[in-house]
């Protein structure tokens, strides 16, 4: 090994969507470990219900390993799941901030045809839910 730590920050971070509800972090690691060395894996849970949101992140040691996993697992169906997996590189925070710049016109392409196939494009859909205002009394 001996590579410099922290090299390419979010470059090897993989975003996974449409996971089965009962999929655990261990399952996620098992699924992805064939393709490389995992340094971190997590699944997002709904805080209100405690249910899995079917969304996870897997971080590999190298971008090559992450790319292998994406190639192998994107659009695979797990078990009786009706939706195929979405597996892609997760945007690093730096990229998100850069995108947040003055690119207002982006993504509004032909906003007249908003409903035409728009929601079927997983890339165009922001996965993060609107931020809940923090409730100090919870």
Give a verbal description of the structure.
The chain has 138 residues and is α+β, with helices and mostly antiparallel strands. The chain is 20% helix and 19% strand. The protein is built from three helices and four strands, in the order E-H-E-E-H-E-H. It has helices at residues 25-33, 63-73, 93-99, and strands at 13-17, 38-45, 52-60, 86-89. Strands 2-3-1-4 form a four-stranded antiparallel sheet, with helices on one face. A hairpin with a 6-residue loop joins strand 2 (38-45) and strand 3.
Task: Characterize this entry briefly.
Helix content is 20%, strand content 19%. The protein has 138 residues and is α+β, with helices and mostly antiparallel strands.
> What is the helix fraction of residues, given as a range?
10-25%
Number of helices: 3
- Characterize the main sheet: 4 strands, antiparallel
Q: Please report the distance between the alpha carbons of the first and last residues.
A: 45 Å
Radius of gyration: 17 Å
Question: How are the SSEs ordered, and which strands pair?
Answer:
Layout: E1 13-17, H1 25-33, E2 38-45, E3 52-60, H2 63-73, E4 86-89, H3 93-99
Antiparallel strand pairs: 1-3, 1-4, 2-3
Spell out the key features of this protein.
138 residues; alpha+beta; 4-stranded antiparallel β-sheet; 3 helices; 4 strands; globular; disordered N terminus
């Amino acid at each position: 090994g001996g590579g410099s730590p922290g090299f390419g920050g979010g470059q090897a971070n993989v975003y996974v969507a449409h996971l089965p509800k009962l999929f655990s972090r261990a399952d996620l690691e098992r699924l992805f470990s064939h393709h490389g060395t995992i340094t971190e894996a997590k699944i997002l849970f709904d805080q209100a219900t405690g249910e899995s949101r079917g969304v996870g992140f897997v971080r590999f040691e190298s971008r090559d390993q992450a790319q292998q996993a994406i190639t192998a697992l994107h659009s695979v169906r797990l078990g009786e799941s009706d939706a195929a997996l979405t597996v892609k590189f997760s945007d690093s925070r730096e990229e998100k901030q850069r995108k947040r710049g003055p690119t207002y016109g982006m993504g509004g392409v032909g906003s007249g045809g908003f409903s035409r196939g728009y929601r079927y494009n997983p890339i165009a859909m922001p996965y993060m839910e609107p931020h809940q205002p923090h409730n100090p009394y919870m």
